[in-house]
Each structure stands twice: as structure tokens, then as C-alpha cells.
Amino acid sequence: MGAARTEGPVTLVTGGGSGIGAAATGRLLDAGHRVTITGRSRERLERFAAEARTRAETKTGAQHDGDTGTLLTVPGDAGDHESVTEAVEATVRRFGRLDNVVANAGISTHDTLADGDPERWREMLLTNVLGPAVLVKAALPHLKGSRGRIVLVGSTAGVKNTPGNMYSVTKWALSALAENARVLVTGDGVGVTLVAPGRVDTPFWESREGGMPEGPSITAGQVAEAIVWAVGQPPGVDVNSVVVRPVGQIH
Ligand SMILES: NC(=O)c1ccc[n+]([C@@H]2O[C@H](COP(=O)([O-])OP(=O)(O)OC[C@H]3O[C@@H](n4cnc5c(N)ncnc54)[C@H](OP(=O)(O)O)[C@@H]3O)[C@@H](O)[C@H]2O)c1
């Protein structure tokens, strides 16, 4: 049976059950972090946790009783204030501290101002904009104590404009949140990094008719490397913005 680890940085990743969040979580666990992941689908989180346990057992040769002691799953909606606060508090109850939060959960309606459904925009705005804001608010008291870091997963859609794209509007808001948060918290020793990926091959595109558009893409693992690099900076160093595109992506 594997003993629960009581040391190592503690990181909370929203939307950690798939895509970029799952890839980042896997790498953070490998780097010795204790990690909480959130997501709306309990089943998706449990599937990821089972895979993480199998990987840990293969690595250490130890048998785990369903809990490696390093991964906590907290089902919940990243756009809901109470849910996000509970994820932060559950993390601190379980691991005793909080060093990093990664606001990664996000969705796209894959539509435009001309043809989109405003009711679907509401969910996207809550997830992509309100969610990261309430995560910062809930985590801040703990991050001030640990002199921790906030990573916001934005998008190149929040760096370049595209015609009438509501998803892009939410990611521009996130880019603004990153810099607004940075100037608020840097005096408290807390770092803020915006990681803005270009096109990434993940389940994100399953909700788009026709799937991922033609053209070059990078992997979730390649974006995860940037997230882990940002949180692994030495004390006193704050990487504020990382844009990661596949070679050949114009916008
Ligand atoms: N893929 C790309 O090309 C690309 C490019 C630039 C930026 N991004 C950004 O990267 C981030 C991660 O996306 P991904 O590509 O890794 O896609 P993904 O595989 O679909 O991952 C998104 C994760 O967020 C979770 N999630 C979605 N809405 C949520 C909510 N309201 N509350 C809690 N969890 C929620 C999903 O789980 P549940 O459905 O179970 O909740 C899922 O695990 C997003 O912010 C996305 O905007 C993606």
C-alpha cells in the first residue's frame, strides 16, 4: 500500500480531467506536486485518477488502495463561486497548503456574434471569465501565505482578434484578468502567468461541427510543459506571458 506523501508543492488545476489540464496534472505529479483537479464530470475525474494510480504503481512498484495520497478530485463547476471556494478549501484541508492554482477549465461555443446563441454564451462567459476570477479570489489568501503562483490558461484567441468570435472575447477578458491580477498581487509575492496556446489537439474541439479545423496543432503535453515551467520558476522570478503556437499557425 502506498503511503500518502506529505511534502511537495500543492497545486489546484480546474478542468484537470482531460486535455491540457490532465497533461499538466500528470507532469505536476511526476514533478512531486500534490494536485487537486476539478471538473463537472465525476466520472471523467475518476477515470483520470485511476490512470494516475496505475502510472504511480508502475513507477514505484507499490500497490495503492485507491488513493496515492497525491491527487484529490473535487467535482464541481469552475464557473460557480461556491464550488470553486469548496475546491480551494478542500485542497487546503487535505494537503495543508496551496502553492499554485491553474485556471484551465474552459469551453467554446465555436460561433460568432452573427450566428451564435446568447444563452450558450452565458455558460461560456461564466466558465472562461467568472471562473478564473473567483478562483483568484478564493485562492488569494492561501497564495499570499505560500507566495504562490496563479496560471491562467488563455488562448491566442485572446491575443489576436478574429471576426465576431465570442470565445475570443472571453479569452481577451482573461488576458486582461491576468494583468489586473498581477498588479494586484505582485506586491504580496504572488506570481501570475498567462499561458496562451494556439491550436491544441484535445477534446475541446469535439463540440465543434467538423471537429478540429485543418491546419497545424500542438499537443496538450506541449502546452503542459509551459505550465509546469511557469510554476517551477525560482522565487523572485515571475513569467507573465507565454504564447505557444504550432509552427505554421498564422493567428
Ligand atoms: N484545444 C485548443 O485548441 C485550445 C487552444 C487555446 C486555449 N485552449 C484552452 O485550454 C483550456 C483547456 O482546454 P482543452 O483544450 O484541454 O480542452 P478539454 O479537453 O475540453 O478540457 C477542458 C476541461 O475543462 C473542464 N470544464 C469545462 N467546463 C467546465 C466547468 N464549467 N467547470 C469545471 N470544469 C469544466 C472539462 O471537464 P468537464 O466537461 O467534465 O467539466 C475538461 O476537463 C481551456 O481554457 C481552453 O479554452 C484550448
CATH class: Alpha Beta
Largest sheet: 7 strands, parallel
Radius of gyration, in Å, reads 17 Å
Report the structural category.
Answer: alpha/beta
The appropriate CATH architecture is: 3-Layer(aba) Sandwich
Number of helices: 6
Shape: globular
Instruction: Give the fraction of residues assigned to helices.
Output: 40-55%
Unreliable spans: none
CATH topology: Rossmann fold
Average the pLDDT over all residues and give the rounded result. 95
Cofactors and ligands: NADP nicotinamide-adenine-dinucleotide phosphate
Q: Please state roughly what percent of the residues sit in beta strands, choosing from under 5%, 5-15%, 15-25%, 25-35%, 35-45% or over 45%.
A: 15-25%
The tally of beta strands, per DSSP, is: 9
